[in-house]
Design goal:
alpha+beta
């Protein structure tokens, strides 16, 4: 099994999660939830691997099955009554 990792951040103004970097070649995706981000990335993965296959050093990663791991960090400050 090949695990592809995507790092994601949240845009507070646009209210979307977006990919910041990862090991999926050519991936640029955003979505309203982490789950939708992973779903969109998974739908794009076959085409991106086909387009960028020659750029991959480890050709064995092209073999499936494939899994996507999303690593995300979201920080926010909240006011509390003192």
């Amino acid at each position: 099994m090949t695990i592809w990792t995507i790092s994601a951040s949240y845009d507070d103004e646009a209210h979307v999660w977006y990919s910041t970097h990862g090991d999926v070649p050519g991936l640029n995706v955003d979505a309203e939830t982490i789950e939708l981000l992973a779903e969109k990335a998974g739908a794009m993965l076959p085409d991106l691997l086909d387009i960028h296959a020659s750029d991959l050093v480890d050709k064995e990663r092209l073999q499936g099955p494939h899994r996507i791991r999303v690593v995300a960090f979201h920080e926010r400050e909240y006011d509390v009554a003192a």
